[in-house]
Write the structure tokens for this entry.
Amino acid sequence: MDRKTFVSSLFSVPDHVHRSERIVASGITPYAGAWGHDQVVHLLRRTGFGAPQNLVTQLSGLTMTAAVTLVLPPLGAAPPPPLTYYTTPADADGIAYGATWVNKEPTLNLVVVTPPRIDSYRAWWIDRMLTSGPSIHEKMVLFWHNHFATSSNNMFAAWMYKHNTVLRQYAMGNVKDFAKAITKDPCMLQFLNGNLNSAAAPDENYGRELQELFTVGKGSGSAYTEDDVKAAAKVLTGYRINYLTASGYYFDANQHDTGSKQFSAFYNNTVISGQSGAAGENELDAMLNMIFSVDETAKHIVRRLYMFFVYYNIDAAVETNVIEPLANILVSNNYDILPVLAALFKSEHFFDVANMSCYIKSPIDQVLGLVRELEVQLPADPAMKKEAQLRLYAYAANMGMAIHDIPQVAGWAAYYQTPAFHENWINSSTLAFRIDYAKALLNGINYGGATPLKPDLKAYVSTFTNPSDPNALVQEACDRLYRFPISQTGRDFLKGFLLSGGFGNDSYWVMAWDDYVQNPSDPGAINTVETRLKALFETMFSQSEIQIA
Amino acid sequence: MKRRQFLKNTAPAVVLPGIINNIPLTAFAENPILNSITQAHTETDRVLVMVFLNGGNDGLNTVLPLDQYTNLANARQNILIQQNQALALNGVNNTGLHPAMTGMRDLFNQGKMQIIQSVGYPQPDFSHFRATDIWLSASDSNEYLQSGWMGRYLDSEFPGFPTGYPNSVMPDPLAISIGANVPLLFQGPAAQMGMTVGTNIFDPWNTGLNDAPPGGYAGTELSYVRLIASQTQSYASRILNALIAQPTNGNFYPNIAEGNYLAEELKYVARTIKGGLKTRIYLVGLYGFDTHASQAEASNHSTGTHAQLLTHLSKALKGFQDDIAAMGIEDRVLTMVFSEFGRRIASNGSLGTDHGAAAPMFIMGSKIHGGVLGTNPSIPSVVSDNDNLSMQYDFRSVYASILSQWFCVPENVLQTIITHNYQQLPIVDPACITGIEEVNSLSDALKLTVYPNPMTTSAYAEFEIMDGFTRLELYDPLGRLMKVYVSTMKPAGKYKVYLENENFRPGNYFLRLENGPLQKTCNIIVTQ
């Protein structure tokens, strides 16, 4: 098929306008079906960043239950903080190169001190995700970041870092404790104006979003009122950022509204009686008890999990068979999230074939996934490594996902905006960025270091079962990178890029590869296989199939 | 028969009668579709540019109600623009603009800008993303529509999209938004009708795999990505050709160093229109209007975040209008400026304002009625923290007016896009309805009065109307619709309606009367 015919044939595909009406009826009964490559990759791509071969091998050797247990480990030690691996400009507070800035209170010299620290923080976070093992922990941090969305606007870097430590401390813990910690978190106090909320001049921003987005949500079972928003705002008066520490808060009882707060029938007409002095802080506990006693809170959080990890279509069957039972688990475990995750990821619903191969990768999935799957090595020098990590951050940002700069407090549109949801990640602008990124990576991304960020494709395919056979090589590449079976026609099309533009026959590649294997340091032999592998992977990464996990 | 086909099949001679599709012929005097029939000249296609002020613009510090300053000063002393700094508008007493808006003042004085006062909707929602959805979908406050009003319009024009597009009749994107994400605005009933454009779409990329997609969700998503991929490539070359055809802008815009990205986006819009792109709708945005804190500097209220934003807006709009005038395409372009809500009457303690309700909209173009539609909002002498401005015009009346007056959407199709029967406002000139001065003076002629006022147990509303659809509504201080007393066709005449205090909470309420294209509001104070 020539290119023109091909393109016009695409326009005759009317498929996506017919949104699937079929029902996926499976529920949270433990999955008992096949446990093979498809299921392992499915689990890894949804709970991590790509499916690196070492993890695929590791999980394939386990049972499904053991694999999920490996994905859901207990919380480990907190990682070491970001360090000042930058010299130009040097940290304006005089933090030495290689020391950490996170404990140093911000100075008045914010314009100078803040940007390199935020860069340092973002690079550190990219590093956490890039080097993540089988644990879901980093993906949960990202999930909660989308849930408790914040941005870097008017932030001190130390607040952002502190906020991140709160996300990771509670990512797999107790949601109610999490909500309390987030409420007092300086980054959140700044982002939603909690810091400005006082008895004399109430600011409803946080009181509103706490209910609308973070807890009860606006689902069909939610019925809190505007007056509840106002009452919540009053409970939340008095929390202030402590500018004398790097990232603390304090409770200013003088700014606290000591009147009693009347909530609506949705909250059983709860009255939170006003308290003065330091006891004013106790009102937050009372309010969170009230909010978390509403079952809609559990359902809302489970729905958010579902949309982030499974698919965005929550129909009546999913609501009944998945959302409600998982919400019950959340409530009966007093809002510990781990039992919910275990039930979800072991469920027949999660492994239902209908829920596979339908997840449009987020930009972070795409950017970090390719680096991890192709085993791209980052430079050893910490300053250069930071620069390389920042380039990866910037590529994801161009695709619409800048970490710690969420454009809306509701989170990224992919996880709430009806009716397109995940499809919001892909438009004519961002799809071009995705393909640009993959091409840049294959050609080497420059970040200022001696060697560009680039996969060693010949090393990568050397781990394949039979890299000298172009048919086997293409088949294995498709199996590893795509979630769709590729037809003989499709594989032949891809194989053409190994065979000098489709004019050669299989033996061209066999000879080229064998030549390279026998002369692994011969520049000519290396160049021959690298050129052809690059063409193959460029083409593979330009296909729509690569965007889906 | 679809309207497009109807018009295409209509010989010019048939147009001679005074009415076509219920629209008087005067509306077609400069009608692009008619021109395209008679002259087959696509250069006359009309374009709508929508400018979204993201975050909720503080209308009361944008369009200044100078006759309300005593009460306004009580409510927002810490951010109020000084009265003597307000920019005066030709022919308008008592209404001024924020001092940062010199460019928009000039446009107004040239008759190229209309200010529509207090645009909102009943039961305002104060959540950014819900309110944005309401504005983009044109839904009621308690109605959840999954498509945008522009998506529905484009669907009525280009049914079946994206299947079969691009094609020779419509080779270009139907709508373009310049920014990172495709909005609800262009979401049609079944498909995304718009396209988001960055600068990198012009690099071609490989295609090749074309296995039939599987069934279920997996096939849905794979087909979606494929469609975007192939359309992007085709549209990219069209846009690129338009940009090549018009490689420069005129020297009318702010310096790029000012960081006015709205101006940069509008430069691109001007070039693609002039360069021959047939795209009808553009969406551009200016972000950062969520001014809870520090919207004005304490030392000088005409500086600060809000002043900076209005400076960007005003310079960008002035530059764009001057540019398209110089390009000779001014008469083809209508620009509409909106925000998801206004802000409260009272400011807060942090030199900012919280989420509110009604706010002014701006319409810009050479083919519009310049002027101020509606009256200054009425500010009560005592304003509580939660009080909002009463709406004078429903935003869907603005949409409906643009669709019928600018895009000549007939009434029966309009009903499928904007799902209720909304007022036609005098926006496009020439158009089929009465001019702006006439509507304003006729609105006064409605003679809406309430007595006794304040109302304790009951009161009477009196008014005088023309023959036509009539609606009388009561709004509470938060802008919520409390009561509809009249909603029906009424013959011309004087009317008296009994109002009862149904245990309303005391406060500053508003009575709103709608009669055909006319409307009038008046304050009613409720006491116990």
